[in-house]
Write a structure and sequence with these properties.
The protein has about 425 residues and is of the alpha/beta class. About 45% of the residues lie in helices and about 20% in strands. The strands form three sheets. Strands 8-9-11-12-13-14-15-16 form an eight-stranded mixed β-barrel, surrounded by four helices. The two termini are about 50 Å apart.
């Protein structure tokens, strides 16, 4: 990588610096890396760099800033139409070992005549423009004044992702899933948390969105799967009969090799596949439904359960659900939380339970906070409840203690157990 060379070149230009900075990123490079291997992916980057050098108009300066990010300087500037033509060339398939590989490029641009500043500020601004392109899934985004402060935190989060994985700043918490028909806890959902030493607790909805938009979600998913399956193996060795659910992203559902990878991880730890569940949102499936359904079916073929999360908030219909290889439907908390006071929500939940059962699926209600809601859900035939009524998400040791205490009660009845507030 030659970020230092880029800074040195830009600094040498000094006040004479003009034109346009262009920062390009291969959106799907991590997936390509996983699919064709590191050596072939490196060959792809070499071919990509050669095409960059041969562009017309040619950049006056070219540097590889990070693994798949390239900085170009056009001293005379470059029109957006010309840049689109360049991207057409760069996105044409690359032949690696007799296989055509397609890439998608996201681009941020910075007009140096309009936006001056230090070299560090210039690089930060063009990185902000690139980040916006990734988030908006736009081919080209030009930097807009006043965006620095707004996006500085997001840039920091993105830059810290890999380091935090390596340094152990991520951890998992587990929230129980209780069978309200027999009163026993038979499952849990693994949820990721990030405690950064300087930024503090970073919300999952914040960093997961950024990881997805910048192509770093594979890093998160791999870490979660490894940690969750390792913990599941520990619980099985301790005699805890529990099914653990992990969440997969839309990008994960385009990785056709992922079921085999997870199957190997389970086999390596002598874990039957029935103890693992995969949770996906409706929106994740709809990103690329044909590929996603195929990937989900491979999970089912292995014996791994599939749950549709946040049911009722997206594209769901009976025909849609019938097409999916799922075992479980999770009714979104937005309908569950007001069941006791909102007749409309109560009817939606009751109808959802009946219709979902008619398709042969298990029904889980999320976000349950009151015992009265548990009682109503039980009367309506709901199978499983998840929420603060039983426990907040807790780390593995605390969950183990809670689970053993909860399931030791004789003749279990929902609501007569230890609760972690």
């Amino acid at each position: 990588f030659n970020r230092f060379a880029a800074k040195r070149h830009l600094a040498a230009e000094g006040k004479q610096l003009s034109g346009t900075l262009v920062l390009m990123d291969l959106k799907n490079f991590r997936h390509i890396n996983d699919t064709i291997g590191f050596a072939n992916a490196d060959s792809l980057l070499v071919l990509f760099a050669r095409r960059l050098e041969q562009l017309s108009p040619a950049p006056d300066f070219l540097a590889r800033l990070d693994g798949d990010a390239f900085l170009l300087l056009y001293n005379e500037g470059i029109a957006e139409e010309e840049l689109h033509k360049a991207l057409d060339i760069l996105e044409s398939p690359y032949t690696i070992r007799n296989t055509d590989i397609s890439v998608k490029i996201r681009t941020g641009t910075l007009s140096l005549g309009e936006h001056g500043g230090s070299v560090g500020a210039l690089l930060r601004r063009v990185e902000i423009a690139l980040m916006q392109a990734c988030q908006e899934d736009a081919r080209i985004v030009a930097y807009r004044s006043g965006e620095d402060e707004k996006y500085q935190r997001e840039l920091s989060i993105i830059s810290e992702l890999r380091r935090s994985v390596e340094q152990g700043h991520f951890y998992l918490v587990y929230q129980p899933k209780v069978d309200i028909q027999n009163g026993l806890c038979s499952g849990a959902e693994a949820l990721i948390r990030w405690e950064h030493p300087e930024m503090g607790q970073i919300r999952p909805d914040e960093f997961i969105m950024l990881a997805e938009s910048t192509g770093n979600i594979d890093l998160i998913s791999q870490w979660v799967l490894t940690e969750a399956i390792s913990q599941l193996a520990v619980w099985q060795q301790q005699g805890m009969e529990i099914k653990l659910a992990v969440n997969l992203s839309a990008h994960d559902l385009t990785n056709e090799s992922l079921p085999a990878i997870i199957g190997y991880m389970l086999k390596e730890r002598n874990l039957p596949a029935r103890y693992l569940a995969i949770e996906v949102t409706e929106g994740a499936v709809m990103k690329d439904p044909l590929v996603a359904v195929g990937v989900l079916q491979r999970f089912r073929d292995l014996g791994i359960s599939i749950a549709i999360d946040d049911f009722g908030t997206g594209h769901s219909s009976l025909a849609y659900l019938k097409m999916l290889p799922v075992n479980e439907v999770k009714i979104d908390r937005s309908f569950v939380k007001d069941m006791l006071t909102n007749d409309h929500d109560a009817m939606i939940v009751k109808t959802s339970i009946a219709l979902t059962h008619s398709l042969g699926f298990t029904v889980t209600a999320e976000g349950v906070e009151e015992q009265e809601t548990v009682d109503l859900l039980k009367a309506q035939g709901c199978d499983i409840v998840q929420g603060y009524v039983y426990s907040r998400p807790v780390e593995a040791m605390e969950f183990t203690h809670w689970f053993n205490q909860f399931n030791q009660v004789s003749e279990p009845q929902a609501g007569n157990h230890e609760t972690i507030a």
